[in-house]
Amino acid sequence: MHTFGYRANALLTFAVTALAFICAIASFSDKFSNQNPSAEIQILNINRFKKQSHGNDEVSLTLDISADLQSLFTWNTKQVFVFVAAEYETPKNSLNQVSLWDAIIPDKEHAKFRIQVSNKYRFIDQGQNLRGKDFNLTLHLHVMPKTGKMFADKIVMPGYSLPDAYR
Amino acid sequence: MDWQGQKLAEQLMQILLLIAAVVAFVVGYATASFRTMMLIYAGGVVVTTLITIPNWPCFNRHPLKWLDPSEAEKHPKPQVVVVSSKKKSSKK
């Protein structure tokens, strides 16, 4: 501790260690917040349902998505990444998940929303299994904190199905 | 800095940084603002740097007493005797 260099080094090391400590406590304080997100999705219209030239089924939908994710935002939340996936079973795969729409929610004000949108990403099956298929629409939530570990959650909404014939 | 000053500086540094960290966290949590916590902590680090790193006079209150040069001459340094080792050890 007898030159500037020694003292500066000691101070910097201790400062960074204490910073890591308060970031860890900040991340831990997230556990005490009550989180209950809610969401609802309706299929307004099935725009197209056909078989592609390669042989795979393709669907184009219009969705009405309403969600209240405000309780997910704490002081330590940077953003929430949300996406809607259609989940169904086929003889070839026990679980298919096709992502239809996603968004990044940067703060609490934008967390309560209702939008009507057609699917951002194409709903294409591996095969021709979609006629008359029952599927779940699952809203996946990835909560990204400012410090700490990201955690993922989901809201499963079952009971949707596709028509029996191509349109 | 002298020895007492160094000890004081180190203790001051640790205590000030701990206080800065605690205050930063409490104020940040109470105002639910992560940015506030970071700013208060950064300010605390800067203040601690200004207090403990430069050579303030308060850290030099117990200067070391070096030996007076005239006193040193009276007690000459011991001479280093070169001993050549012989194979047959002969004790004197």
From TrEMBL, chain A:
UniProt membrane topology term: Single-pass type II membrane protein
Compartments reported by the entry: Endoplasmic reticulum membrane
GO BP field: protein targeting to ER; signal peptide processing
Residue ranges of coiled coil: none
Membrane found in the keyword field: yes
One GO cellular component, as annotated: signal peptidase complex
Stated name of the protein: Signal peptidase complex subunit 3
Short name of any one Pfam family annotated for the protein: SPC22
Biological role: Essential component of the signal peptidase complex (SPC) which catalyzes the cleavage of N-terminal signal sequences from nascent proteins as they are translocated into the lumen of the endoplasmic reticulum. Essential for the SPC catalytic activity, possibly by stabilizing and positioning the active center of the complex close to the lumenal surface.
Similarity section: Belongs to the SPCS3 family.
Species the sequence originates in: Arabidopsis thaliana x Arabidopsis arenosa
Keyword Endoplasmic reticulum appears in the UniProt entry: yes
Keywords (A to Z) from UniProt: Endoplasmic reticulum, Membrane, Signal-anchor, Transmembrane, Transmembrane helix
InterPro entries cross-referenced by the UniProt entry: SPC3
From TrEMBL, chain B:
Classification via Pfam families: SPC12
Entry similarity comment: Belongs to the SPCS1 family.
Transmembrane regions listed in the UniProt entry: 12-32, 38-56
UniProt entry tagged with the keyword Nucleus: no
Region (Disordered): 70-92
Keywords: Endoplasmic reticulum, Membrane, Transmembrane, Transmembrane helix
UniProt organism field: Arabidopsis thaliana x Arabidopsis arenosa
Its biological purpose: Component of the signal peptidase complex (SPC) which catalyzes the cleavage of N-terminal signal sequences from nascent proteins as they are translocated into the lumen of the endoplasmic reticulum. Dispensable for SPC enzymatic activity.
GO biological process: protein targeting to ER; signal peptide processing
Descriptive protein name: Signal peptidase complex subunit 1
Superkingdom, taxonomy of origin: Eukaryota
Principal subcellular localisation of the protein: endoplasmic reticulum
Cellular localisation: Endoplasmic reticulum membrane
CC terms in the record's Gene Ontology section: signal peptidase complex
Membrane-protein topology: Multi-pass membrane protein
InterPro entries attached to this UniProt entry: Spc1/SPCS1
